[in-house]
């Protein structure tokens, strides 16, 4: 095989049950790449779709040599699918985009142009968000604002993973061994010159969201535990506060016993303090447990994902070993 020039742009597309969006997305992305007139590749990561998505991706790959794919052995989750893409791209610039067309492919032109001005990362910041449930909008809004408050890393608010970044940043990400991925935080953490362009986020065109509330909660906890020790500090602070109150109650109890010598039935205060202390203790243990489960997850160091099939040059059975 002769030497193949590395593409200028790699586009990573995580896929989970997107059979109705794939062709449409492919057409629009191809149009965008033709406008930019640069050499490119698409890396489709099929994250254990239960529908016909993978067959469609293979059809595209047969037709177009720019279409690369990685097929997971099962559903590993969105962040891991994008990470697998990042492990296998070779572009000078790498784009991460959702398959459901909520991230307009045409915006890549703006992201790319902005990058040419000398930025390592240009992320797409949502000005408006359409067709999402009230609860999702509300939780997302507060999640990003609280996260911003309790972490020292500046993680931009109202931003998903839709962005473009240079191969420098991709190198940094490849060498971050943590397994509970929160890519948008990790990218901010990397530093360099980062900026954003704004856009209005559209509705999902076809299909249903792959992010259940369960996955969203896990993702939020990953973000918080990876970038903040604040919850652990809350546990400590609650411990101090409760101890302080308990000490006062102790003084009061001794006063009642020795000075007033009034016999107090005391059931109410007893049951209240037991419940209260029990609650505080369980919360604190739970918070510690969240961190510990992530430590054990990292110590286990299983491969991050299992590749079933790929047309990429680097054949791998598992994720990179760090
Ligand atoms: N996705 C994935 N694995 C999953 C869930 C989602 O690869 O377990 C992909 C999905 O196909 C889409 C992107 O991640 O390209 C964003 O997912 P989705 O649109 O379902 O999330 P939402 O926009 O509702 O937050
Ligand atoms: Mg979506």
UniProtKB/TrEMBL annotation:
<dbReference type="GO" id="GO:0005886">
    <property type="term" value="C:plasma membrane"/>
</dbReference>
<keyword id="KW-1133">Transmembrane helix</keyword>
<feature type="transmembrane region" description="Helical">
    <location>
        <begin position="234"/>
        <end position="255"/>
    </location>
</feature>
<dbReference type="Pfam" id="PF00535">
    <property type="entry name" value="Glycos_transf_2"/>
</dbReference>
<dbReference type="GO" id="GO:0016757">
    <property type="term" value="F:glycosyltransferase activity"/>
</dbReference>
<dbReference type="InterPro" id="IPR050256">
    <property type="entry name" value="Glycosyltransferase_2"/>
</dbReference>
<keyword id="KW-0808">Transferase</keyword>
<keyword id="KW-0472">Membrane</keyword>
<feature type="transmembrane region" description="Helical">
    <location>
        <begin position="267"/>
        <end position="292"/>
    </location>
</feature>
<protein>
    <submittedName>
        <fullName>Glycosyltransferase family 2 protein</fullName>
    </submittedName>
</protein>
<keyword id="KW-0328">Glycosyltransferase</keyword>
<keyword id="KW-1003">Cell membrane</keyword>
<comment type="similarity">
    <text>Belongs to the glycosyltransferase 2 family. GtrB subfamily.</text>
</comment>
<keyword id="KW-0812">Transmembrane</keyword>
<dbReference type="InterPro" id="IPR001173">
    <property type="entry name" value="Glyco_trans_2-like"/>
</dbReference>
<dbReference type="InterPro" id="IPR029044">
    <property type="entry name" value="Nucleotide-diphossugar_trans"/>
</dbReference>
<feature type="domain" description="Glycosyltransferase 2-like">
    <location>
        <begin position="10"/>
        <end position="171"/>
    </location>
</feature>
């Amino acid at each position: 095989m002769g030497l193949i020039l590395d593409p200028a742009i790699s586009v990573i597309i995580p896929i989970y049950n997107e059979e109705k969006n794939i062709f449409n997305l492919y057409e629009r992305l191809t149009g965008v790449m033709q406008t930019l007139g640069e050499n490119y590749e698409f890396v489709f990561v099929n994250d254990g779709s239960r529908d016909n998505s993978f067959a469609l991706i293979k059809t595209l790959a047969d037709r177009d040599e720019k279409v690369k794919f990685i097929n997971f052995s099962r559903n590993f989750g969105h962040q891991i699918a994008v990470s697998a893409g990042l492990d296998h791209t070779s572009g000078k610039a790498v784009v991460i985009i959702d398959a459901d067309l909520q991230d307009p492919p045409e915006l890549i032109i703006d992201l790319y142009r902005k990058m040419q001005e000398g930025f390592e990362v240009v992320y797409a910041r949502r000005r408006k968000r359409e067709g999402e449930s009230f609860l999702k909008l509300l939780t997302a809004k507060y999640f990003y604002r609280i996260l911003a408050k309790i972490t020292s890393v500046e993680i931009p608010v109202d931003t998903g993973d839709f962005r473009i970044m240079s191969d420098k940043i991709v190198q940094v990400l490849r060498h971050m061994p943590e397994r509970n991925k929160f890519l948008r935080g990790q990218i901010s953490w990397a530093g360099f010159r980062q900026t954003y362009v704004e856009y209005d986020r559209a509705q999902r065109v076809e299909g249903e969201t792959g992010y259940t509330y369960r996955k969203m909660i896990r993702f939020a906890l990953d973000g918080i535990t990876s970038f903040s020790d604040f919850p652990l500090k809350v546990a400590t602070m609650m411990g101090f506060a409760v101890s302080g109150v308990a000490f006062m109650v102790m003084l009061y109890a001794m006063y009642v016993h020795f000075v007033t010598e009034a016999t107090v039935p005391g059931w109410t205060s007893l049951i209240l303090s037991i419940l209260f202390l029990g609650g505080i203790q369980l919360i604190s243990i739970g918070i510690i447990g969240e961190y510990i489960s992530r430590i054990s997850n990292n110590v286990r160091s299983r491969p991050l994902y299992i590749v079933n099939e790929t047309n990429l040059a680097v054949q791998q059975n598992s994720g990179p070993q760090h």
